[in-house]
Amino acid sequence: MRMASGSMPQGGTGVTIGVDTHGEIHVVAAFTSDLGRPLGHLEIPTTPAGYRQLLEWARGLGTDLRFGIEGTGSYGAGLARFLSDAGCSVIEVNRPNRQTRHARGKSDPVDAEAAARAVLSGEATGIAKADQDRVGMIRALRVARRSAVKTTTEIVNQMRALIVAAPAELREQLRELSRAPLIAAAAAMRPGPIITPTAAVKLALKGLAQRHQLLTHEIHILDAELGRLTARAAPKLYALMGVGTDVAGALLVAAGDNPERLRSEAAFARLCGVAPLPASSGKTTGRHRLSRGGDRQANSALWRIVMVRLAWHQPTKDYMARRTGEGLSKKDVVRCLKRYVAREVYSVLVPAVELATAA
């Protein structure tokens, strides 16, 4: 559905287009790239036909097209892929903070205009992450694995809670068992007719244990596929100490299938939330604070690399001893190490992914 336009299309001009994305519709606002003059609005369905309608409309406004899209990793993923495949420049736009949103009001056309103006002003410059190839497969499998691991933990906690309140004889049989023997013992139970509290608890434990076994088998299958995909996507990443399948998957998903969009190792560090932010003011100079932004799963992956190296890597142990001797806390030293590891990962991750993608 086409909405009212602010002016007639002007062929041959640069056009910047902002898109506010939703589940069923996308709302679009277009401006000239030189003066920021409004060119019009459009509302399209989130279907291939809607995407084609948007592209045809945009090409009628000008030739040099730039699209600023909110939510390129969620509601805007389909449109971002379509436009990238069509050779258009797609820039990822972050949602404005609450204060800015409160000051200007809230509506879909206003949000679309804000996305376009973020590109025009240079506030939004990051190329949208692509993950429709190998990294997309890794991301999908990691979602399933994370859900399965979380559920197995919940199942064990539920079984422990049942055992605490179980009849005394059953409780004494199971309370000292570790996780694996507990699952095996519960899965082999024969509750019989459910006419006593003990039989009811046994049936509940048996069902939970069998569910745990099914999910564990699923996790093994997912781990095998993730290991194969991550090794093919970034073989050099595995040569780094502390990098396993899960860590490699998190870092690859953060970088995407187009790691060339990360212009420097500093950009990668910021993406992972390990770039220190300046916090100097007045007489306090040279101070930095922890960044709480970025991809938290990639941040966790870097933390795990550091923990492994602190346990097994002598140069890392020596660095920790030296910096703590200089007065830094262990947390501060770990933050420094995460930043150094991000630099090391970037040096092998980006070329590795580029070569794998080209192949």
Question: TL;DR?
Answer:
The protein has 359 residues and is α/β, with parallel strands linked by helices.
Q: What is the terminal-to-terminal distance? A: 42 Å
Give, in order, the helices and strands: EEEHEHEHHHHHHHHEEHHH
- In what range is the share of β-strand residues? 5-15%
Which structural category fits the helices and strands? Answer: alpha/beta
Radius of gyration: 26 Å
How is the main sheet built?
A: 5 strands, mixed
Explain what this protein looks like in three dimensions.
- The protein is 57% helix and 11% strand.
- The chain has 359 residues and is an alpha/beta fold.
- The protein has three domains: 14-121, Nucleotidyltransferase, domain 5 (2-Layer Sandwich); 134-233; 236-256 and 264-276 and 294-353, no CATH class.
- It has a five-stranded mixed beta sheet with strand order 3-2-1-4-5. It has a two-stranded antiparallel sheet with strand order 6-7.
- α5 (134-164) packs antiparallel against α8.
- The longest helix has 37 residues, at 197-233.
- The protein is globular, with a radius of gyration of 26 Å.
- The two termini are 42 Å apart.
- Residues 6-11 and 352-359 have low confidence and may be disordered.
What key attributes describe this structure?
359 residues; five-stranded mixed sheet; two-stranded antiparallel sheet; 7 strands; 57% helix; 11% strand
Protein topology:
Elements lengths: L13 E8 L3 E8 L5 E8 L2 H14 L2 E7 L6 H9 L3 E5 L4 H7 L3 H14 L12 H31 L3 H7 L4 H9 L9 H37 L11 H11 L9 H7 L5 E2 L9 E2 L6 H17 L1 H12 L4 H29 L1
Parallel strand pairs: 1-4, 4-5
Antiparallel strand pairs: 1-2, 2-3, 6-7
Helix pairs in contact: 5-8, 5-9, 7-8, 8-9, 9-11, 10-13, 11-12, 11-13, 12-13
